[in-house]
Amino acid sequence: MSKKKKMEPLTGEELLKKVKELENLSKEEKARACGYYTVTKNGVERVNMMKFLNALIDAEGVPLDGKPNGNGRGGRSASYRITVQSNGNLLIGAAYTKQMNLQPGDEFEISLGRKHIHLRQIGAEAEEVA
């Protein structure tokens, strides 16, 4: 029995294009076809309409937050500030990785300065030199 691999949810222009192609389907069917679903332990597919609709709003470029340069709370807008967590970690949120089109598994080399951290993507040199 072969398992169908779940696709990554579509975003941006790809999402808009796919939704237009599927204009005759219900919104739940569109969400599923665009990858906005999960499969439970029992094998039941659950459509995540909230993520789907939020992705559509983002793809259309509709600003919902009143303060685009806020303190990083209450939405997906990047504040370009992070705080060291109580466990000593620095977390770079999804707003930044999404803006840079980073994918799971992308690797970086870390260089430490006196008061700065520099990240250099491993394997990106070939793309930068053209």
From TrEMBL:
<dbReference type="InterPro" id="IPR007159">
    <property type="entry name" value="SpoVT-AbrB_dom"/>
</dbReference>
<keyword id="KW-0238">DNA-binding</keyword>
<dbReference type="InterPro" id="IPR027360">
    <property type="entry name" value="AbrB-like"/>
</dbReference>
<dbReference type="GO" id="GO:0032993">
    <property type="term" value="C:protein-DNA complex"/>
</dbReference>
<feature type="domain" description="SpoVT-AbrB">
    <location>
        <begin position="79"/>
        <end position="124"/>
    </location>
</feature>
<dbReference type="GO" id="GO:0000976">
    <property type="term" value="F:transcription cis-regulatory region binding"/>
</dbReference>
<dbReference type="GO" id="GO:0001217">
    <property type="term" value="F:DNA-binding transcription repressor activity"/>
</dbReference>
<dbReference type="Pfam" id="PF14250">
    <property type="entry name" value="AbrB-like"/>
</dbReference>
<protein>
    <submittedName>
        <fullName>AbrB family transcriptional regulator</fullName>
    </submittedName>
</protein>
